[in-house]
Every structure is written in C-alpha cells, then in structure tokens.
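Lab meeting, action items carried over

1. Structure of the two-component assembly. Owner: GW. Status: complete.
Input record:
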Amino acid sequence: MEPVTKGKADGPQWGPRDAMTLLNHNLRRVDGPEKVSGRARYTHDIRLPGMVYARLLLCPLPTAQVELDCSAASKLRGVFAARGLGGKTSMKTGFLGQPIAVVAAETPELAEDAVRAIQATYKALPWSVTPEQALSTEGGKVKDNGNLGKPATEGDEDKFKKAFDSSAAKVEGEFHIPIQHHCSLETHGVVVDFNGGETATVYASTQGTFTVSGDAADALGLKASQVTTIVDYMGGGFGSKFGLGVEGLTACELARELKRPVHLMMTREDEFLAAGNRSGSIVKLKVGADSEGRLIALDGDVMKLGGIGGGAFNKPQYAYSLSDSKPPSQDEESGKPARPSKDGLHTSIRSLYMHTDSSRAMRAPGHPQTSFPIESVIDDLAYQLKIDPVTMRKKNLANEVHPKQLDRVAERIGWAKHPNKTAPQEQPDADGTKTGIGFAVTIWGSHGGAGCECKVAIGRDGSLQSIVGSQDLGTGTRTYVAAIAAEEFGLPLSACTAKIGNSNYGNANPSGGSSTVPSLAPAVKSAAYKAAQAFLEHLAGVVKRPIEELEFRGGSLVDAKVLPDAKEEKERKAGKGPKALMTWKEACATLGAAGISGEGRWDQSLTHADGVHGAQGAKVKVDLATGRVQVLQMVGVQDCGLPLNRTAVESQLNGGMIQALSYALHEERVIDPALGLMLNANFNDYKLAGCQEMPEFVPLIDEDDIGRGPIGMAEPAVTPGHSAIANAICNACGVRLHSMPFTADKILDGLAALAAKGGTK
Amino acid sequence: MSLGDRTHVSRRSFLKGAGGVAAASTALGAAQAFASSPQVERMSGSTEIELSINGEKRKVKVEPRTSLLNALRNHCEPPLTGAKLVCNQGSCGACTVFVDKKPVYACMLLAMDCIGKPIATVEGLAVDGKLSAVQEAFVARDALMCGFCTPGFVMSVTACLGKNPKATREEIQKFCSGNLCRCGTYPRVFEAALEAGKQMQGGK
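Predicted assembly:
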C-alpha cells in the first residue's frame, strides 16, 4: 500500500498521520460524563406530561387462532386503551411471541394489570419450532410450499467428488450453530410526543435516526416533515434496531387515538421473542487438501435457521480460496494459494423456516456462523497433515493482509514456544487441565455510501459545532464528529460540540454493516474543510492578506509560510500556541451574528471500499475432570484504515472478542418443541458472559494499514473469536466440538469418546 | 448483594401473595377472572410514601407492589432515570443503587420496604457537578460504550472500592459479577476501577 492518505489535492485531505493532533490518538468520549452520571437520557428515560405507558401482549404459542376480548381490560381505572393490534379481535398468528394486543395506562403497573386482564383464547395450530420439527412430516407448515427454501447452489458436485477423492487429507463434519440474541440492554421501543396537534416528536431507540419519521408520520396522520425523530442516546442495537417496528407503529397509532404522549418499550421477555436474533445454522462440510496443505475440494451444505425469516450465511469457504488439484510446481512460492480455482467447490445454501420470529441483521450477519465450520475443518486438516495451523491458513487465505496479521497474533499469544501445535497436549498439568491455542480470521466489506450531510458552524462567541443527524450506538460516533471538526482548526476536542441524533439536522445513513464511519467521516471532514475555507476567506479580508498565506494552526490564524520551528512546536505542546496573526477568539469575534459555516457531503475520495481484515487468537484451559473451559487470553489484530479514535477502535475490538467468547461458551435460544415455549427468554436463563469470565484481552490496530482513509471495523471484530476458542479447545484436549455453545457436558462427552477410541485422557 | 438485615418482603414473595395485601392478584387466570367480574374497575391502589433519596426527602405515590426501581424512574417527580430497567429480575445489575449504604438491585426491592432508609443513586455521586473518582476513571479509561449498563457498574465499583480501595482485579471482577454489559466494556471497567482505587488511596 502507498503511504499516502487519500483526499483531493484541491479539497479536503486527511493529511499525514504524524501531523494529526486528535485523530489517530486516544480520545476521551465527549459523552462520557453524561453516561457515568446518569444524566444521559435514553428513550427509556423520557418522561412527558400526560404520558401513558403502553405494553404489548404477545401470543404464547408458535402459531394459533386467537380470539381477543379486551372489554374487561378497557374498564380498569387508569387504563386508556386495550385492544387487538390493528383493531382486530380475531387473528391467526405465525410465530412464537407475535404481538397481538396493546394496552395503555397511567402507570407501568396498571399497564401490566391491563395486559393480564385481556381475555384471549388460543387455538393451537400445528407448529415447527425446531429444525427437527420443521423437517418432519408432522411439523406445521411455515410456508405454503414447504419449510425448506430453494437452495442457492454453486459449483459442480462431480468435480468436487473427483477433487475430494484425490485429496491427501479429508475431513467431514456437521456443525450446529444455535440462534443467538442481540441482548441490547435497552429494549426496542419509542416514546411518541403527540398531543393531537400539527407536529410530533418520536424518541426512538434506533440505529437509524432517519428510518423512523416517515412511517411514524403515516401512523400519526401527519406529513414526514411534521415529525422529528430524536436519538440522543441509545442502549445498544447490534443490528436489530432499524425502522419504526411493530412496537413503534403501535405506539404512534395509540398516540393518535389518545392525543397523548405514549411510552412503549418492550419488556425483556418481549425482546427475546419478538425483536430479532442472529440466525442459527446446520452446516455439513466435506473438505479435502493436498499433501502441501492446499484446499482443493469443498462441499458445503448449509441450512439457515432464521425463523420466519431467511437467515444469513456467507460463502462456506469464507476468507479462504481453493487451489486447483494439480500438484504445485517446484518454483511455486508457498504461502499463497497455488492456483486459485473453484473447480473443487460445490455449495448449497438454503433456509429452513420455523414458527419463530424473523432473524435480523446482527453484527457481521452470517459471518460468525460461516467462520466456525471452516476454521474448525482447517485445523483438523492441518493436524492430519502435521502442518502448523497458522502455516496452513497462510497457504489458503485469499488475500495478502491476513498472513501478516496472523503472524502478529501468533507472536503476541506465544505460538512459537507453544509445544503442541498439531496435536493435543499429551499429559495434563498438575491441576488436571490442558492448555491450547487456536486461530481464526475475519473479513468485512465495510464501505460507505452517499447520504450524509454534515454542517460545521463557527460562532462569533468562539463556538464550534459539528452538526449531523446521525446516531451513536455506543461506538463513539459523537466523539469523532466533534474530533474531525476540531482537528481541522487545530483546536482541542473540548472546543467542538457535536450535535447528533436529531432528524432535523443533516441526513445520516443508518448504522449498519460498519458503514457509519466510511459514510459519515468523509461528510464531516468535507464540512469542516469548507467551514475552514469560508472562515479563511473572511479573515483574509480582515487581515488584508491573500488566503493562500493563511492557515489555522493550534486554533489560531497563522502565516502559512512561517513553518513551525522546534521551539514553536514545544510552545504549542505546552499550550502556549504559535505566534498568531489572530487567536481563535479574536478571529471569531470578527464574524457577524450568524457566524460562518460549511456543509459537507460524502466524498468517495476520503474513504476506501476495499474492505477490512482481522485475525484473532485464543488461549484456553480445559479442566479434564469438569469439562470447564476457561479462556485465558484473546488477541485480536484488526485493520480499519485511519483510526479516528484509537481508544474507541480498541474498545470495539474488545467488545467483538467478548461477544464472541459469550457466543462460544454460553449463548443459545432454547425452545421446547412439545410446548412451543422459549425456555430462556430472560437474563437468568439466557447466559451472557460476565465479569468473572473475562480473560486478558489484547486489542491491536494493524499498523501496516497506513494508506487508507477511515473504514468501519466493528462488525468483523465479532466474527472469529468463537472459532479460535473452538480450535484452542481441540488443541488443548483433542475434542473437536461441532456444536455451539461449548458447554462442559459436550467437552466431557468428547473426552469420553476419545478415551473409548484409546486416545489420551 | 445484601438486601439488608431487616425481615424483608421480597417482590417475588409479595407477588405470590405472601405479602398479605389483597390488592394485586397476579396469576394470569385469577387476574382475568377478577377483572372480568362486572364490578371490578380497579385491581390495585396507590398511596403516598416518603423516601430519602440522595439526602432529600421525596414524596412518591406508589402501590404496594411498586419496585424501588419503578418508584425512582416512574413515580418520582422529577424522575431519577439513572438506574436502568433492563432485566427486571435481579440478573444484570443495571438498576444498582445503594440502600442503607449497601448496593442492591432496585428492581428486586419494594419501594415501601425502603421507607426510612437512605437511598443513593448514581445521580448523587457527583458533588457540585464534579465527577467522583470512579466516574472520572470510567471516562478516562473508556469504560463505557452504549452506556446503558454504566450507571449500574459505576455504583458497583463505587461500593467495591468503598469496602476496599486496594481491591485487586480479581476482587473487582468478583464483586461486580452481578453486573452485565453487552457491548463488552468489562476489561476497561476493571482498569477504571483499579485506577479509581489508586486515586482514592491518595493518587499513588
């Protein structure tokens, strides 16, 4: 990669990294003080005069004919409304937990009473809530033309068979990946501020400030321009929170009927049943490699389990590419796919539908599900061929970034000194445990798109504001919206106020697919550049110098020709500032009452669309007596172009590894097929990794990625961790797990099976 | 987390009817039958109580079944929404407040059980707008992302260091194991707690 940072020669440029004062540094979040003091107001926290609390009733069966009688509930004192959704009293439901009725009452307690007082009768219809039911002839039909969707296929089965037969090492496996939940701590919901007038405000816990007003306006009988959406703070989304949703639509309808503000936040149980999930999968893989460790044959048969939705899955070979099956010639450099070829590839991906709520996007949709089977198989092949799993990966990775990243992870985790690279630890340690290390990689195509419109405004009072409607999911958007603008003038971060989360501000893209940074950062940069240019032009007139001779340095207006010398640099770092033509305050004081501003839109030249890469490693300890897996360390390397805030990038990388650890060891939606009930729709029974399971995390930004503008990286951080843990478990004790989560019972079963085969124990 | 020494009516046992107050009938069938009888238009009643919150006496209108969390968030005027409603079952710690100087899950306590006891919430930690050492360290160490679990973690860490400012990472992990975070701030929370502990010992 060229060591240049993109931008237009005669327009905004990110400039060299070593000249940056805020970007590429460790920044404190600008909203930290609000969040630690309880002052940050989330949608859940909005309280308005005359506001009523609404609550949904969900269907307790997977599919049923429902008859509703809400008359008793409506009569309760303090209850303002109790009715079926859409005003219906009779309906057929299609998934477990489908919302069927809503109530609104003076207090949350009264709303709870009202929900309980709804008399509903349910006539159960034949259902399918597990893959077994959905595939059996007795299971209820989710779709008219059967529960199994049409497969998307690639490749030729006969060619695969030929390549597989000729393989030196072969592995076959069936992998089961459960449905995972987003578990955003703030549930889905809205507060609608409407009193029957001409305007309304919708406070929404959403990943898309601009995905709400249109539908809300329809439901309220208003025009979109009459509805303001506010997303000041939001408590996590992870892909599940786009659009108004049935809960938001219902709240708007109630507000219109009652001419009162309505607060409708889903309960935790509602959230588990009716607010989306990461689809599960059943994956059958057959993979063959030649004696050099090059993948030459892969057959992947995938069923996606996304409830009534389609589910998500990537290419079964994921970040790896197959080589052709001819033996490599002498002069071929190892460490790269010999000759990329899809000859031995045959894949089939389809959906299996069930009577559960639709899967939604969840942090890197499809990628974690895809990662686990292929990364497991690669290790199995490496063990068969006695090839170091890191080397094995390098031979097959489709791009040139991953090999270097793998080396960095291997170095940091202590791979060189690790004694057992292609076989489990022979003898347990004195405490009855064995230790292993595993690796996996991640890819993501994060690229930005047009849509963002930012305004950077300078006031006569010395204020600097960076204004755009975007939401901050907790990734740190608010902080870089301020930092990019402050950096343009050489001002400290505290000098700029970011105003975000409001649909009356400039448009912003919804935050999905790690696209916020590459869509938003260029727009902020452009706006800051234009504001600076406009301000310089104004000041040129004031100081009667050509604009070419002026620039901002350390917040002050300086002579651009006078390069900062070492002394000045020292003074600037000591906070004294360079010799200035005008200080920031003086310069701003020359402005009119309206101040001066610049508006910027997305600019392709300020970001890159060629994707991001990462590699992760995990070190685990397996207790042979109890089957307990303890993760000791996780190391992640991630590229992201220009890091806008290094601290925030590292926090995202930590967060990805932690969610992957939780996915690996604990998370699973459990539904009783006979009763059609979800058994763990709460935080007691749906286990999330907590404080005591946290190992050491080593989040590393890929320092080789120096030539690119800022690119999103939050999604890929979640993809490889659980696969690395699976490989580490196998490396420790020899148990290859094919089913997530990796609970103690599965480890013990695996150890028993190994012992029965005469393996080590 | 301790619920205090006094004989205690938990929200759960109360809901099962053990509290002996006939106001709330909660079994689904019973509620339906109760509500559908023609005379019934009220299933519960509320009364005004006085709570001592962050050193101030506050009049709060609650029902016998109202949790301390709901009292703070929905029945106080102005409301105290720093403590968050997340799991409503004592699993996640996002609603952690102090009652009688001990950290408790506000979702698991009845408001009425807190009459006469000092209640402290996250809103009361900063003095004259100056963040506490724990809050300051959370900001400095990026121990927050979406921020929804943060008030609960700040309270738990404050309680942990109040007992022992020299707490090790392992002791902090154990003490805070009743708090959940989904974004993955845990390692930064531990760093912040260690940093705050140092500050509290005199900035060594």
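2. GW to write a short summary for the group page. Key points so far: The two ends of chain B are 30 Å apart (CA to CA). Strands of chain B lie at 47-53, 56-62, 96-99, 102-105, 118-120.
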